[in-house]
Amino acid sequence: MRESFESLRASSLYCRRCGKAMPVRERLLLILPDKEIYDYLCTGCADSLGQREVSAGELLQHRAMQRRGHGRRAR
């Protein structure tokens, strides 16, 4: 069960400027050899509300799963 929560993405976060939970969008900040760093931006005021780091291993696993899924077609 723990595996399903290893890679989470926020869809909304609390924004102090807006005074409530707001939808967020991810912006890629930095690509490093061992990870990528993303910034969460409020869709209302564009304030930075947090960051997410994705390790190289997670990226490779995600891309491999995407390739497998694209090879199959629903019947």
At a glance:
The chain has 75 residues and is an alpha+beta fold.
SSE layout and pairing:
Blueprint: E1 12-15, E2 20-31, E3 35-42, E4 48-55, H1 56-71
Antiparallel strand pairs: 1-2, 2-3, 3-4
Series of secondary-structure elements, N-terminal to C-terminal: EEEEH
Largest pleated sheet: 4 strands, antiparallel
Number of domains: 1
Helix content: 10-25%
Number of strands: 4
Measured by DSSP, the beta-strand proportion falls in 35-45%
CA-to-CA gap between the ends?
A: 29 Å
The residue ranges in which pLDDT falls below 50 over 5 or more consecutive positions are: none
Give a written overview of the molecule.
By secondary structure, the chain is of the alpha+beta class. It has one domain (2-69). Helices cover 21% and strands 43% of the residues. The chain has 1 helix and 4 strands, in the order ββββα. It has one helix at 56-71, and strands at residues 12-15, 20-31, 35-42, 48-55. It has a 4-stranded antiparallel beta sheet. The protein is elongated, with a radius of gyration of 15 Å.
Keywords, separated by commas or semicolons:
alpha+beta, 75 residues, four-stranded antiparallel β-sheet
